[in-house]
Amino acid sequence: MKKVKCIVPVSGGKDSQACLKMAVEKYGSAEVLGLFCDTKFEHPLTYAHVKGIQEWYGAEIVTVCGGSVIEKSLKYGRFPGGGARHCTDELKIRETKLFLAEYAKEHGAVEVWYGMRTGESSERAARYEYKDPDDLYPPHEVLAKYPKFLATLGVMFRLPIIDWTGAEVFKFLDGKHNPLYNHGFSRVGCFPCLASGDKWKMKAFNFDEFGQSQRIAVRHVEDEIG
């Protein structure tokens, strides 16, 4: 694992992509490392887009995987939703925490740029109302599920686009966003997000052959967990 100035968790969505682009413009591609947490539940267009991000901006993107959404749903006997989002907790936050801890123990302090925006939801607007895009924060002050020891290792989070609108993000990316947005999906990542509303799940399931295969996989899990 190489030493860099900035690590950017990348999902394939527009906000994390904007953070990676900003970090490369500030530090140069050699000093930026992307981190993609694979849930094994993303659309092929998203996997291809993550590769495109690496090529466009020149920053290496490391992929980690702690299992799959289907495996976790079978393990817990339920799909993610409400306060039990094992997909986010175990496949993204846990894997990011482990990666950052390993990195900091080897290399020391590092900035982590996260693509949260207050405009995404009322919950995020309330949580991040007083966060400054130019300041650094201990990880647990940004997301409570991150342990305090990361800060003692020198890991600090920055929210560089916290006050941006979605339109500003798209403009900054200049057309190089995930193509799923062009098909009316407001969020990309897990395809579909099983914690989202039925409208978005059905849109994904009926989108293409991959969506149909995802629906079959979900039905199989439903049969197993009842």
Which bin fits the share of residues in helices? 40-55%
Average pLDDT number: 94
- Please give the alpha-carbon distance between the first and last residues: 43 Å
**Stretches where pLDDT falls below 50 for ≥5 residues?**
none
Number of strands: 5
What is the ordering of alpha helices and beta strands? EHEHEHHEHHHEHHH
- What is the helix tally? 10
Q: Name the shape in a single word.
A: globular
Strand order of the largest sheet: 3-2-1-4-5
Question: What amount of the residues lies in strands?
Answer: 5-15%
Main beta sheet: 5 strands, parallel
Question: Based on helices, strands and strand pairing, what is the structural class?
Answer: alpha/beta
Radius of gyration: 17 Å
Summary, kept brief:
This protein is an alpha/beta fold. It is 46% helix and 11% strand.
What do these coordinates show?
It is a single chain. The protein is α/β, with parallel strands linked by helices. The chain has ten helices and five strands, in the order E-H-E-H-E-H-H-E-H-H-H-E-H-H-H. It has helices at residues 14-27, 44-57, 69-76, 86-107, 122-127, 139-142, 149-152, 166-173, 198-205, 209-225; strands at 6-10, 32-37, 60-64, 110-113, 155-158. The chain is globular and about 45 Å long. The N and C termini lie far apart (43 Å). The mean pLDDT is 94.
